[in-house]
Amino acid sequence: MKTSHRTVVLLLSAGLMLTGCSSLTDTSVSGGHRGPTLPARTPEGDHWEKGPAKPVQHKAYPYDLYTHCGIKWTRFGGRWWVLDTVFPGVEQVRGEQPSQYTQTLAGYMTLIGPDTANFDAAGMPTLQFVPAEKNPPGCA
Prior knowledge:
The protein is mainly β. 10% of the residues lie in helices and 32% in strands. It has one helix spanning 5-18; strands at residues 38-39, 60-66, 73-76, 79-87, 93-94, 104-113, 116-120, 126-131. Strands 2-6-7-8-4-3 form a six-stranded antiparallel beta sheet, with no helix packed on it. Strands 1-5 form a two-stranded parallel ribbon. Strand 7 (116-120) and strand 8 (126-131) form a beta hairpin. The longest helix has 14 residues, at 5-18. Residues 1-33 have low confidence and may be disordered.
């Protein structure tokens, strides 16, 4: 299934509205989480942040998620990943939401476990990826 960038932005925006207003300050919330801990990023021209070939678990790496063909697939740590779950809730990145008129979401990718990676960007819910069983289809 092909998902356009506009559709992805619309769905993510709707998810954010449904979760209610959350503060972008470092205030305590239930469960002891202190709010966003990473600074917002912006794409740096032609340079793409892809993370390391062998990421370490629980370390957030600057990462640019290519959105031209949608956000279902991404390549991180030397393998393909597929979007599995979107977790609206406490934001992990503080700052302004990225422009919707770009083909890149600049954020952070964190290897949570051997088969789970989370992508976080300012103003966005957490996108959780799992290893893909096959290579992604080409982008038309």
